[in-house]
Amino acid sequence: MKSVNFLLPFVLMALASSLASAYDPSPLQDYCVAINDTKTAIFVNGRFCKDPSVATADDFTSSGLNIPLDTNNLVGFNATLLNVDSFPGLNTLGISIARADFAPGGVSAPHIHPRGTELVLVQKGTFYAGFVDSNNTLFGKILYPGDVFVIPRGLNHFQVNIGKTDGVLYVSFNSQNPGLITLANSIFGTNPPIDPYALARAFQLDVNAVKQLQAKKRYSPRRRSHIGYHSRSPSPKRSPWSPPPNRRTGVGKPGKNLFVAGFSFLTTERDLERKFSRYGRVRDIHIVRDKRSGDSRGFGFLSLQKDEDADAAIRALDETEWNGRVILVEKSKSGR
């Protein structure tokens, strides 16, 4: 009896281990190509499998990830996922891949993949990507071409194209079908709707504001192989931002106070000081922020010690790229 009691914990541990490995389990043979005709299929896990004797190289090949996607929608984002539904050879192999296209300023809204860890590779553009863990800690990073960012399975995450040109990400998952839950849709776009009074209490909003959010037309993920957002009504084509014509920067005129605009919302006062201190001593920095949220509005003011220092900074930095954005630098007209 004692030996039974001694072995019981190990049995329970082994059982728990086998249950934990049920997520995208390893295939029981070299491959298992998905097939819809179940009469001649062998079921292992995931989808029914084609008889290995009739499998071909085409079952393990897919094309099209080189084709740019239409980002002409309100979020400026679109993506195509190659999972087991569109690529049968992935069945039971625990892997899938996606291409994501972003217009300038495009956003992959906060979302979750319940069944897969995500590995992001920047192919083109400048991105701000991040995820939030179970302690509500944000892990965010500005990414450039060639950078790789990993997002643990099931955590809320997002990507934003902070550059002035189109951007492309290639994303892989350790699941043949990682799933997609877009938070805005799962909260305000459910069918039937969640009780607006419950949402108003949870988000500390007015009930009418919640009802307005629930009534909004929103982008819904396309099923099967396409996970991007598609517009239900035409929206204007986004074009890269460019400085206004015939600007007057104030070079040569008296003044050491500068107006700086167009920088990333993630830019801090310390970043501005480092950027401008090479042209002279920075005496004062003020980033304009939203009164309610405290978030940067992407412009601000700073002062240099001499008029000549301000002129040098304008000549060197005005209409140049910084962290994927074109910044404007000119003499402040407000006298700040």
Write the layout of secondary structure elements.
Elements: H1 2-20, E1 42-43, E2 48-49, E3 77-82, E4 96-102, E5 107-112, E6 118-124, E7 127-132, E8 138-143, E9 148-151, E10 156-161, E11 167-173, E12 181-182, H2 183-188, H3 196-203, H4 207-215, E13 257-261, H5 269-276, E14 282-289, E15 296-304, H6 307-317, E16 320-322, E17 325-331
Antiparallel strand pairs: 1-2, 3-4, 4-11, 5-10, 5-12, 6-9, 6-11, 7-8, 7-10, 13-15, 13-17, 14-15, 16-17
Helix pairs in contact: 3-4
Family: Belongs to the germin family.
Pfam families: Cupin_1 (PF00190), RRM_1 (PF00076)
Region (Disordered): 216-255
Description:
Helices cover 18% and strands 28% of the residues. The chain has six helices and 17 strands. The strands form four sheets. The protein has a five-stranded antiparallel beta sheet, with no helix packed on it. A hairpin with a 5-residue loop joins β7 and β8. α3 (196-203) packs across α4 (207-215). The longest helix is centred in the first third of the chain and has 19 residues, at 2-20. The model is unreliable at 9-13, 15-23 and 221-241 (pLDDT under 50).
User: Strand share of the residues?
Assistant: 25-35%
pLDDT under 50 segments (min length 5)? 9-13, 15-23, 221-241
Helical content band: 10-25%
Gyration radius, in Å: 26 Å
Q: Give a count of the beta strands, DSSP E runs of length 2 or more.
A: 17
Distance between the termini: 84 Å
Subcellular location: Secreted, Extracellular space, Apoplast
Biased composition (Low complexity): 231-240
Main location: secreted
Protein name: RRM domain-containing protein
